[in-house]
């Protein structure tokens, strides 16, 4: 047998040499090796190697080793309990924590301290306007400027001079306008066809801009076509067109709809690993000039990404050059939600499953405890929502309750806690216009609107009646008010996103929630992907939500049509489940389960 096997091998080798197969096989092998080369590692945090956890068993003891006679009564022996390393890791950290105490060793702490000093000097535009108004009101009553006395003759002479100068300016302007009209007339006469085509396209683009149901050219944007259309007359003034901002300061430049459709992943680092674990929540500081993105993961880490916009999109960093990433561990368990204070952007509030609410003070550069649950209460704190005054916090828990906390009180005190649902409350959100109205979503498949002014009418053991309720087929993961407080976007596991428009819950004749605009959307995330939630833009009439096809969908509020579908097959390797909008810019940040982030701008 061995001789026959060797003879077969020799015969096969001669046949391969005859057909020159070794060269072909070697060529194929090299191309396959080139094709299977590993991609370059993602910049940012390095993945830590997980140490295999081994349970430490108690030491075996016997009566013989303890010199105890068989017939005698055994003496009491105390066995020291073995500390569970997982339990130690999940223990909540008490008190105020500095940056050095919470640093994970990723990033330069001194550089992050300088960054916080720069952001601490930022004053929001609204506060600037308010300060100027208050200053003018106060000074007008106290300060009186003495003007120098001027004769009537001099005043008349100066008035005559001003009139003559205005007449000269008007004459020159009229002559310039006439000359411009003549030039335009000659151009139109020589280029009639081009002018006619230009007029046609300008007229058609104007009509397209006024229609609220404009679709993107992307073929994947057909998901929003199943949504119900509402007439333009039935929409409020703020919803007249989806490409109009809520403030007129950003009306210059291209339409906002086109800006959203043009969003791409740009920059020298398309994807950056900011957090060690799966990203669960995100927030962006409202400074327009300095973009700071923050993400919280399931291990309680806060990862900060400082975007350097001075670098061009085609900038090629060096091999050893890394993005500005900073990582701190202020919580011991999953960081469930975070939000900047609307009145004090120097404070970043965060809730965690370790039973604490903290805020990062950029001025003091410390993580300060704002609230700690009682020892007999559940420590799973969910989403956080801050009132427009910035003095009170709402957060939910797994027992179906919501808690109102005043940040000016000690950390072990609260205003009240009310049980509003039978099961876990996944999201609580306060109306940005009316602080007395909140909306909650729960695992009991309901979304409810509450007026907290009626909570005092009920006893402790008495069930509170909601203002209005809407039943879903499956559990509701989120329900959030729009920035103007006139709409609600809810996300549910029944694979639908619902938009509730055209109602004013503050009116006394408010009785029920109107019929929503229903958008079919796959919300089945499974175990290893963070729950999908519809996140409103801070100033505009649209919201974004992650797509299970590794993309981000942006929907219009008025009609529910798909404005844009953002995707990047090269850089997006997982589902961008968590999203956050910049408060003052058309900029979107997306976080993924592998701890990486991308920026759409």
From TrEMBL:
UniProt GO molecular function: DNA binding
Composition-biased stretches (Basic and acidic residues): 146-195
Keywords attached to this entry: DNA damage, DNA-binding, Repeat, WD repeat
Keyword DNA damage: yes
Gene Ontology biological-process annotations: DNA damage response; regulation of DNA damage checkpoint
Biased composition (Low complexity): 206-216
GO cellular component, one term: nucleus
Source superkingdom: Eukaryota
Region Disordered, annotated ranges: 27-110, 146-255
Extent of Polar residues compositional bias: 94-106
Each WD repeat, start to end: 328-370, 421-454, 469-501
Listed PROSITE patterns: WD_REPEATS_1, WD_REPEATS_2, WD_REPEATS_REGION
Pfam families reported for this sequence: WD40 (PF00400)
Family: Belongs to the WD repeat DDB2/WDR76 family.
Described purpose of this protein according to its UniProt entry: DNA-binding protein that binds to both single- and double-stranded DNA. Binds preferentially to UV-damaged DNA. May be involved in DNA-metabolic processes.
Protein name: DNA damage-binding protein CMR1
């Amino acid at each position: 047998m061995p001789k026959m096997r060797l003879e077969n091998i020799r015969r096969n080798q001669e046949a391969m040499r005859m057909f020159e197969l070794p060269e072909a096989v070697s060529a194929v092998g090299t191309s396959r090796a080139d094709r299977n080369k590993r991609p370059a590692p993602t910049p940012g945090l390095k993945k830590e190697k997980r140490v295999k956890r081994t349970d430490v068993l108690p030491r075996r003891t016997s009566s013989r080793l303890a010199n105890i006679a068989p017939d005698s009564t055994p003496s009491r022996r105390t066995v020291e309990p073995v500390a569970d390393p997982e339990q130690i890791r999940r223990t909540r950290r008490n008190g105020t924590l500095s940056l050095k105490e919470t640093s994970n060793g990723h990033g330069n702490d001194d550089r992050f301290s300088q960054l916080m000093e720069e952001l601490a000097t930022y004053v929001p535009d609204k506060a600037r306007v308010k300060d100027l108004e208050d200053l003018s009101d106060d000074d007008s009553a106290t300060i009186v400027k003495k003007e120098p006395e001027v004769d009537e003759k001099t005043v008349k002479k100066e008035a005559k001079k001003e009139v003559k100068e205005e007449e000269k300016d008007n004459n020159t302007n009229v002559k310039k306008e006439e000359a411009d009209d003549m030039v335009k007339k000659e151009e139109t006469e020589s280029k009639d066809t081009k002018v006619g085509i230009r007029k046609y396209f300008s007229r058609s683009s104007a009509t397209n801009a006024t229609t609220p149901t404009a679709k993107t050219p992307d073929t994947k944007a057909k998901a929003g076509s199943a949504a119900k259309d509402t007439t333009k007359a039935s929409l409020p003034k703020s919803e007249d067109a989806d490409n109009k901002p809520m403030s007129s300061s950003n009306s210059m430049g291209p339409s906002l709809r086109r800006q959203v459709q043009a969003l791409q992943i740009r920059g020298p680092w398309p994807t950056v690993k900011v957090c060690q674990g799966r990203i669960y929540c995100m927030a962006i500081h409202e400074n327009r000039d300095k973009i700071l993105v923050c993400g919280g993961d399931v291990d309680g880490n806060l990862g900060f990404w400082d975007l350097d916009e001075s670098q061009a999109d085609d900038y090629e960093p060096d091999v050893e050059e890394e993005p500005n990433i900073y990582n701190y561990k202020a919580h011991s368990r999953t960081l469930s939600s975070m939000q900047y204070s609307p009145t004090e952007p120097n404070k970043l509030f965060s809730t965690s499953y370790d039973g604490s609410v903290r805020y990062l003070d950029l001025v003091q550069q410390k993580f300060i405890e704002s609230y700690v649950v009682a020892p007999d209460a559940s420590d799973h704190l969910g989403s956080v929502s801050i009132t427009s005054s910035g003095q009170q916090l709402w957060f939910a828990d797994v027992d179906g309750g919501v808690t109102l906390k005043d940040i000016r009180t000690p950390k072990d005190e609260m205003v009240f806690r009310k049980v509003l649902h039978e099961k876990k409350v996944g999201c609580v959100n306060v109306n940005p216009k009316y602080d007395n109205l909140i909306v909650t979503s729960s695992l009991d498949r309901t979304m409810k609107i509450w007026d907290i002014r009626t909570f005092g009418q009920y006893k402790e053991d008495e069930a509170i009646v909601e203002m209005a309720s809407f039943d879903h087929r499956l559990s509701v993961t989120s329900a959030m008010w729009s920035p103007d407080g006139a709409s609600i976007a809810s996300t549910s596991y029944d694979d639908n996103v619902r938009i509730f428009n055209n109602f004013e819950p503050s009116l006394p004749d408010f009785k029920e929630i109107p019929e929503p605009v229903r958008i079919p959307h796959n919300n089945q995330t499974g175990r290893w992907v963070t729950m999908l939630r519809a996140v409103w833009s801070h100033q505009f009439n649209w919201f974004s939500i992650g797509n299970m096809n590794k993309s981000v969908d942006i929907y219009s509020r008025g009609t529910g049509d798909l404005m844009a579908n953002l995707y990047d097959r090269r850089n997006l390797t997982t589902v961008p489940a968590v999203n956050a909008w910049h408060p003052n810019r058309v900029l979107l940040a997306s976080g993924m389960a592998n701890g990486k982030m991308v920026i759409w701008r």
